[in-house]
Design brief:
It contains 19 helices and 23 strands. It is α+β, with helices and mostly antiparallel strands and 578 residues long. A hairpin with a 3-residue loop joins strand 18 and strand 19.
Length: 578
C-alpha cells in the first residue's frame, strides 16, 4: 500500500499526465506502476528487446545509444532529463526498442507496464495527440480480435506481415498494370494520328483500366492490414482475415509448443529484418507459420522464452504443492479447514412457475435449434441451415416440388382440352400429382431429418462427431477425449459464410480418430472458444485430482515413516521408566 501511495505521489508531479488523464485511470496505473532507481551505467533496456515497460524519469539522466552493424561504437541519439518519457513509442506500436537506454548517473524512474500505458493513452485523446500517436495501438486492436482473452493473459507482441510483402503483391499486380497502362496511353497520345482515332477513346480506355486496377490495389492493402500475428504470455495466435469476407484463426498454447524455428533465407531478409517463424505442436497438423513477420529473431526468442517460463511455472507450482504437503505432514503448517456444507435456504412461497404453452412452432424450433445446452453442461451443435440448402442438397426436393406444382398448373390449363378425349385422364393427372407431391415432401423430410441427425457434441471430457441416417439405417460416430486435443482452429471461408457467421472448426487430436472437423457450425469463434475453455477446465480438474492422489500417497508414506522410524527412536516417557 505504501508503494502504491509513493508512486501516486510521484505521478502527481508529472503535469501533462495529471491534466489529461482521467483520475480513475491514473489510479489504476499507479497500482501497476513501480518506482525504481538505476545506478550509473545500468541499462533500462537494450536495443532489440521487445518492449514491456515505459519509463518516466524523475531525476538523473538517460542516454539513448544506437548500435549499427558497421560501427563498433554506439551513436548517442539523445539525452533525456527529468519528466521525459522513454520507451513509449515502442510499447505503443509494438516495435523492439531501437536503442539502449543507459543511466548516466543515479536515475529515479516510474516504470509503467505497457498494458497500463496503452490504457492511459487510449483514455486521453489530448495525451495521445501530445505524444504524436496518429493510429490506434496494435494492442487495442488485438484485444478486439481476442474476445476470449483471460484476465491473467498479457499481450506481448502484435504485428502485421512485413511491408515488403505488401509491396511485392502490389508490384506483381495493380501497380505494374497501372504503370503499363499509363505508358501505353502516353505512347498512344504522342505517336498515334489523332485524325484516325480520337484521343478521347484512349483516355476512356485508360480510365476504364484504372477503375479496374484501383479496387484491386485497395483489396490487396485491405487484406494486408487485417492479418495479425499475436503472442501473449500463454499462446501464439495467427489471424488471417478480410473483414466482412473471410476469417481464419490458428493458435498454439505454450504447453503444446514443441519447437520454434527461424527462417531467414537471403541477405534481404536479414537487411530488412523479416522472415518466417514456424511453431510446431504435438499435433499432426502443419506448424503455425508466422510468415513475413517483422523482427523474426525477436519473435523466436519471445516464444521460446515464454514457453520455457510456462514450463517453469508448472514445475514451480508442483514443487510448492509438495513443499506445502510436507510441512503439513511434519506439523509445521496447520491443515486447511474443511468448509462446512452450506445448507440450502428453505423454499420461499411465491408465484408458481408458469408452464410454457406447447405449440407446433415451439416443437419445430426445438427440433431445428442450431445449438442446444443440456443441464449437465453438454453442448450439442448442428450444422447451420445453409448446409441444409447447399451441402445436404435440400434444394433438389424443393425444386422437384416446385416443378410438380408448375407442371400441375400447366396440366390444369390443358385438362379441358384433354378431357374431351378421356374422362379418366383427368383423374390420372390428379393421382400422379398426389404421388409426386407425397414423394417430394417425403424426400424433403428425409433430407431435413438427415441434416438434423448430424450433430457435434461437447461433453465434460470428450468431443463427438455423430452422423445418423434417418430411421436408423446407419450411424457413424467419431469420439476423441478432450485430453488428446493438440490444436483448435476455425475458418470462415468467404463472404457468404461471414454474412451468416458460419464456418468450420478443426480439432487436431492425438487419438486414433485424428482430425475432427465441425463443418458449417454457427458462431465458429464461440464453438472454438467453448472447446478450448472446456479443455482448460478438464486439465485443471485432472491436475487437482492428480495432486490429491499424490498428497494422499505422500501422507501415507510419511505416516509409515513416522511409525517405523521416528516413534521407535523416541526415548521412553518417565511414567514408563518408573
Amino acid at each position: 500500500m505504501s508503494e502504491h501511495l509513493n508512486v501516486w505521489e510521484k505521478i502527481q508531479q508529472i503535469s501533462y499526465l495529471v491534466e489529461n488523464v482521467p483520475p480513475e485511470v491514473l489510479e489504476r496505473v499507479s497500482e501497476m506502476a513501480k518506482a525504481h532507481t538505476f545506478a550509473q551505467g545500468e541499462a533500462l533496456f537494450r536495443q532489440g528487446e521487445m518492449p514491456t515497460t515505459v519509463y518516466i524519469l524523475l531525476s538523473g539522466a538517460v542516454a539513448l545509444e544506437r548500435y549499427e552493424q558497421d560501427k563498433p561504437e554506439p551513436s548517442v541519439e539523445a539525452i533525456l532529463r527529468p519528466f521525459e518519457m522513454v520507451g513509449d513509442h515502442s510499447c505503443y506500436y509494438q516495435h523492439p526498442y531501437p536503442y539502449d537506454a543507459i543511466a548516466l548517473e543515479p536515475t529515479e524512474v516510474i516504470a509503467i507496464p505497457a498494458a497500463a500505458f496503452i490504457e492511459m493513452i487510449e483514455a486521453s485523446p489530448q495525451l495521445r495527440q501530445r505524444l504524436g500517436y496518429r493510429h490506434t495501438s496494435p494492442v487495442s486492436r488485438a484485444k478486439e480480435l481476442l474476445p476470449d482473452l483471460r484476465e491473467d493473459e498479457e499481450i506481448l507482441f502484435v504485428q502485421r506481415r512485413h511491408w515488403i510483402l505488401l509491396l511485392r503483391r502490389l508490384l506483381l499486380g495493380p501497380l505494374t498494370g497501372m504503370l503499363l497502362a499509363t505508358i501505353l496511353f502516353t505512347v498512344a497520345i504522342l505517336f498515334v494520328d489523332s485524325q484516325t482515332i480520337s484521343r478521347v477513346w484512349f483516355l476512356v480506355g485508360w480510365g476504364a483500366l484504372m477503375m479496374v486496377l484501383t479496387p484491386w490495389l485497395a483489396w490487396i492493402v485491405f487484406d494486408w492490414q487485417n492479418d495479425y500475428f499475436i503472442v501473449t504470455n500463454q499462446r501464439a495466435i495467427h489471424i488471417e482475415q478480410i473483414i466482412a469476407y473471410k476469417e481464419e484463426r490458428r493458435e498454439a498454447p505454450f504447453e503444446k509448443v514443441q519447437d520454434v524455428q527461424l527462417e531467414q533465407a537471403t541477405i534481404i531478409h536479414t537487411l530488412l529484418d523479416y522472415g518466417n517463424v514456424r511453431i510446431a505442436t504435438a499435433s499432426n497438423s502443419p506448424p503455425i507459420l508466422f510468415d513475413y513477420v517483422p523482427h523474426p529473431a525477436v519473435v523466436q526468442r519471445l516464444l521460446t522464452e515464454h514457453r520455457d517460463r510456462f514450463a517453469q511455472r508448472v514445475r514451480k507450482r508442483a514443487e510448492e504443492e509438495k513443499r506445502r504437503l510436507l510441512r503439513r505432514a511434519l506439523g509445521l503448517e496447520p491443515p486447511p479447514e474443511q468448509a462446512k456444507p452450506s445448507e440450502a435456504p428453505p423454499p420461499q412461497a411465491g408465484e408458481p412457475e408458469k408452464k410454457r404453452r406447447f405449440t407446433p412452432l415451439h416443437a419445430l424450433g426445438r427440433r431445428l435449434a442450431v445449438t442446444t445446452i443440456h443441464d449437465d453442461g453438454t453442448i450439442v451443435w448442428r450444422k447451420h441451415w445453409i448446409a441444409l440448402i447447399g451441402r445436404d442438397q435440400a434444394w433438389k426436393p424443393l425444386m422437384f416440388l416446385l416443378l410438380t406444382v408448375v407442371g400441375m398448373m400447366l396440366l390444369l390449363w390443358a385438362v379441358p382440352e384433354l378431357s374431351r378425349f378421356s374422362r379418366r385422364l383427368e383423374w390420372l393427372i390428379f393421382v400422379l400429382y398426389g404421388v409426386f407431391m407425397v414423394f417430394g415432401f417425403g424426400w424433403l423430410l428425409w433430407t431435413i431429418e438427415d441434416w438434423r441427425n448430424d450433430v457435434y457434441i461437447l461433453t465434460k471430457d470428450a468431443i463427438v462427431d455423430e452422423e445418423r441416417e434417418p430411421l436408423g439405417f446407419d450411424v457413424r460416430t467419431r469420439r476423441a477425449p478432450l485430453t488428446t486435443i493438440q490444436d483448435i482452429s476455425y475458418n470462415i471461408p468467404n463472404m457468404l459464410y461471414t454474412f451468416f457467421d458460419v464456418g468450420h472448426v478443426t480439432i487436431e487430436t492425438a487419438s486414433q480418430e485424428g482430425k475432427l472437423t465441425f463443418d458449417f457450425v454457427h458462431h465458429p469463434r464461440e464453438v472454438a472458444f467453448h472447446i478450448y475453455q472446456r479443455l482448460r477446465d478438464l486439465e485443471e480438474e485432472e491436475r487437482v485430482r492428480q495432486q490429491a492422489r499424490l498428497d494422499q500417497s505422500i501422507l501415507e508414506i510419511l505416516k509409515l515413516y513416522n511409525e517405523e522410524v521416528v516413534e521407535k527412536r523416541l526415548p521412553p516417557s518417565t511414567s514408563q521408566a518408573s
